[in-house]
Sequence to fold (213 residues):
Amino acid sequence: MTVLVDGLPYHYESGTEYVLKIQIIGGPELDSHSNTGGFSMLVSAGTLGAGEGYESMVQNWDGDASTLTHTNSGAKTLDRSWDVVWTAPPTGEGVVSLWLAGNSVNGDSVPSELDMWNRLTTSVAEGEDDGNTRVVFSGNGTIEPPPPVEGVNIHEMGAGLRAHWLGLLGFAAVIIVLLFCGLFLRYGFSKHYAGRSNLLRLRIKHLRRGDQL
Fold:
């Protein structure tokens, strides 16, 4: 199982709000009628809050603004992800550490090998924020690709069959033109080509004899 945080800045600026996405990848199959997973997050400085639309899905633990965890409704997410907001601390705080733990469960309320968990630790230094963000994760990072689509039409994968035939006909036309031009240059300029060929052979014969200037 992989737990990750997306949108983390390389450097933070005082008082800036950063929208972070927490996501858990892997674990039991998702079930919209029961718990799917949860998380617990802690920062050494600054405050944590809910992202837009996630007000009912996350909460501060015991009113501590430096901690954040899922609610009962937040444990039933369809994609095991939550948007949170980290507000950077005042200037001079220095490096801020972030701790995150997450789990992925099947919702049967019985601990088993099907239930998985993981955690990560990362940090953000104080400095000039250039707007670039990063993804930090813990785990093997394996994300299964979507299943292949059955019966894909060949015309949806590239040019149509008619376009291929037109391309082949165009290529053949170029070859024919080149052959025609070659024959025309060889035989079309003079009716006395055979005589000129004999003259050329005579000149070569003289060159071989060495009796030219």
Observations:
- The mean pLDDT is 82.
- The CA atoms of residues 173 and 179 lie 10 Å apart.
- Residues 161-187 form the longest helix (27 residues).
- The chain has two helices and eleven strands.
